[in-house]
Amino acid sequence: MDPYLLHTIDFLHQFTGNNCESAFSDKVINGQKPDGIIIVGMGSSAHIGRLLQHLTMAKHLPPIFVWDNYLLPKTPFRFPLYIFLSVTGGTHEVLSGLENLLSVRKIHSMFQIGILAGGGKLKDLAIAHKIPSIFFDVNGKMPREALGVMYKSLILLLAHFFTIPTFQTPDVSPAEIAPTAKEVAEKIKNKITLIYTDREHAYLGYIWKTIMNETGKLLSFNHTFPELFHNEITSFIPRTIGTHILWLYGEQKIAELETKIQKVQTILAGNGTGSTTIGLPGATKDDQAWNSIVLSHLVGYYVAEMTGQNPTNIDIINNLKKGLL
Questions:
Q1: Partners of residue 224 on adjacent β-strands
Q2: The CATH fold of domain 3-161
């Protein structure tokens, strides 16, 4: 079996396996708890921050901000917790933020730092500066394949700073959703793929978009409704460009919105734009999110298989990081 497919089918093991190592020091400074969390990461690492913002653990935590850029953002937090995350431990943007923070720590210490790393320079800095950390092993997975490992590691790290519930393993069923994945892949292969979600699930739309890019090697973009009905919808009317839309959402609470989606699907079908509605399988918000992520991996994999692409090849990304382009 292809390693990418095997990793996806075995996704649940990311939550239950022994793949994390803790390195902790004092819990708080002067007894003060952080009033905000800033997750610093790029690519799949930033996805982890967005998942934290939207899954049920968020209600037990202070406000969460995700930073996917160089240096650090300005926030209203008075005593923030910065968490730096990188699978390789060598992500330049993440390291620039940590090094910036360490340079002012002796002058201004009204913040705390945590680190999640798979190795590299980020791990070295964590050890050298005795920063509370979780070091994890992705066991040969691409970063986007290891979202479960990283999320579990993040919850373990947050438990060092906050009183939060014990992590509950989600109910994920890759084998049950694999047939749906093949059907969707057949529809979108060789197509520009648009991921449209309701506002609540925009974070999942972006995860889907990036997995279609990296794994399926598809041009893919995401937007939210009803906002797209006020702008992007006009671009479909004058032309047909080989596009398929994946409508990703749960049960709609607004009947008018459901009716409008159906009307738009009918109109776009008239100029050759296909539409597929994808539900969110699972009994809870967390189960739905993780099953949707697994489904996106399977769709991306089957698209790559159908079009003769290597689902793990990201040479252009690696060459950009190394400055070879």
A1: 197
A2: Rossmann fold (3.40.50)
